Amino acid sequence: VCGAQSRVLAPRSAPALVEGLKSLFDNLKIGDPLDPETDIGPLATAAQAEKVDSRTPPNAVMSRTASSSMS
Q1: Do 42 and 49 form a contact (C-beta atoms < 8 A)?
Q2: Element (H or E) spanning 42, and its range?
Q3: Are 5 and 14 in contact (CB under 8 A)?
Q4: Could you tell me which residues come within 8 angstroms of residue 26 by beta carbon, excluding any fewer than 6 positions away?
Q5: Which of 63, 57, 65 lies closest to 26 in space, CA to CA?
Q6: Are the C-beta atoms of residues 62 and 68 closer than 8 Å to each other?
């Protein structure tokens, strides 16, 4: 199942929504798609990875990667 979303539109007056989504995404487990504890598996292609990287803000902190969580 693919649940990829490229953007969320929300009013500026909804900081609780933004914080809730941030908390949700910060706590997703990235790893082996066959592991039942995994929330997000690897991207399918290098082009997908580049697309995600291009949309990530320069000051974003990436706390884990699929390769590091699968080792």
Answers
A1: no
A2: none
A3: no
A4: 63
A5: 63
A6: no
Contact 63, 23 (CB under 8 A): no
- Nearest 5°: CA angle at 28, between 25 and 33? 135
Describe the chain by its helix, strand, coil percentages, rounded to 5: 35, 5, 60
CA angle 6, 48, 54 (to 5 degrees): 65
Block means of pLDDT (10 residues each) for the chain, 71 residues, are 66 83 84 88 80 74 46 42
Residue whose structure tokens are 């902190």:
61
Q: What is the pLDDT of residue 25?
A: 81
What is the residue whose two structure tokens read 């697309």? Answer: 51
